[in-house]
């Protein structure tokens, strides 16, 4: 599914954040990327999710080198295969939960006729269906993270990338999020978590 070969990433031509990383991720695996703050974990996750390109090395996705693809094709791969859970949630607080859940549909090349059903199902999966019409600003931190997880799942991606998904949560909400990710993995998704 994903193979990184001798990946390095340099910023501003001199700051080497990743150096010669190789790894293979098979479908259905659950992977945790561990390391201290500033060690390049988020950069690695961004490369895996095609948000960044490596400075050196090759990234093979389903047998094809990403470097040989157009930006449009890479964007299609990102939007149809990856669901992102960011540490900062990236929830627009002035919007309703429903409107936040609609965002992935805007960038996905696939037109979905059952958008509302998918949104309700994703919110139900994280026990947030009763917050459907609420403004996001009134949600607790744990509820915002669960909406972020539901949003990552709404297009039914094969791969979930989670950047420190419990980093801003108390221990109780952290356990809820870890259990949700475990349940997602048990359903056959590939999960890559930074912690």
Describe the structure.
There is one protein chain. Helix 4 (115-125) packs across helix 5 (141-153). This protein has a single domain, classed as 3-Layer(aba) Sandwich (Rossmann fold), CATH 3.40.50. It starts with a strand and ends with a strand. By secondary structure, it is of the alpha/beta class. The model has no long low-confidence stretch (mean pLDDT 91). 32% of the residues are buried. It is built from six helices and eight strands, in the order βββαββαβαααβαβ.
Count of DSSP-assigned helices: 6
Return residue spans where pLDDT drops below 50 for at least 5 consecutive residues: none
Q: How does the helix and strand content classify structurally?
A: alpha/beta
Please describe the biggest sheet, giving its number of strands, its sense, and whether it closes into a barrel: 4 strands, antiparallel
Any idea of the CATH topology?
A: Rossmann fold
Distance between the termini: 22 Å
CATH architecture: 3-Layer(aba) Sandwich
Could you tell me the mean pLDDT?
91
Strand content: 15-25%
In short:
By secondary structure, the chain is of the alpha/beta class. 36% of the residues lie in helices and 24% in strands.
Quick tags:
195 residues; alpha/beta; four-stranded antiparallel beta sheet; four-stranded parallel beta sheet; 36% helix; globular
Topology of this protein?
Elements: E1 2-11, E2 15-25, E3 30-33, H1 41-48, E4 56-61, E5 64-65, H2 71-81, E6 82-85, H3 97-107, H4 115-125, H5 141-153, E7 159-163, H6 171-186, E8 190-194
Helix pairs in contact: 3-5, 4-5
